[in-house]
C-alpha cells in the first residue's frame, strides 16, 4: 500500500456516501475484473465525493484505497459488514450516480 494512502480515512472514518462508492467499486471488480483482459469496458473509477482528500485521489490510488478499506474486496466486505449491508451501499452509490439500482449484488454472484 502506498504510504500516502495510510494517512487517508479508514472505512469507519469515511462518510456513508464514500463507503458506498468504495463498495460499488470492489463489487464491480469482483464481477468483471479490470475488463482489460476480456475486451470489456474497464470498471468505473471510484467516485469519492465527501472527503476532499479522497475526492482528490487519482483513479489508481482511489482503487487501491477502496481495496484497502474493504479489507481486500467484495467478499471480504460482505463478511465484515454483512452481504445485505454491502448490497445496500452499492445501491446507494448507484442512486447517487443517477443509475437505476437494479437487483442487489450478491457476494456469490
- Find the count of extended strands (DSSP E, 2+ residues): 0
**Derived structural class:** mainly alpha
- SSE arrangement, N to C: HHHHHH
Helix content: 40-55%
Distance between the termini: 28 Å
Taken as a percent bin, the fraction of beta residues is under 5%
Largest sheet: none
Q: Could you tell me the mean pLDDT?
A: 84
- C-alpha geometry: globular
Question: Spans of 5+ residues with little confidence (pLDDT < 50)?
Answer: none
**Rg of Cα set:** 13 Å
Number of helices: 6
In short:
The protein is an all-alpha fold and 109 residues long.
Question: Could you describe the 3D structure shown?
Answer:
With 109 residues, the protein is mainly alpha-helical. 53% of the residues lie in helices and 0% in strands. α2 (16-32) packs across α6 (83-96).
Which key features would you list for this structure?
109 residues; mainly alpha; 53% helix; globular
Chart the SSEs and their pairings.
Layout: H1 3-6, H2 16-32, H3 52-55, H4 59-69, H5 74-81, H6 83-96
Amino acid at each position: 500500500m502506498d504510504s500516502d494512502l495510510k494517512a487517508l480515512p479508514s472505512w469507519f472514518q469515511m462518510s456513508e456516501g464514500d463507503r458506498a462508492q468504495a463498495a460499488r467499486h470492489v463489487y464491480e471488480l469482483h464481477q468483471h475484473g479490470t475488463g482489460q483482459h476480456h475486451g470489456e469496458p474497464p470498471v468505473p473509477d471510484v467516485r469519492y465525493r465527501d472527503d476532499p482528500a479522497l475526492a482528490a485521489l487519482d483513479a489508481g490510488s482511489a482503487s487501491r484505497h477502496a481495496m484497502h478499506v474493504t479489507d481486500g474486496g467484495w467478499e471480504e466486505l460482505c463478511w465484515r459488514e454483512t452481504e445485505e449491508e454491502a448490497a445496500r451501499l452499492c445501491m446507494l452509490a448507484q442512486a447517487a450516480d443517477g443509475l437505476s439500482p437494479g437487483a442487489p449484488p450478491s457476494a456469490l454472484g
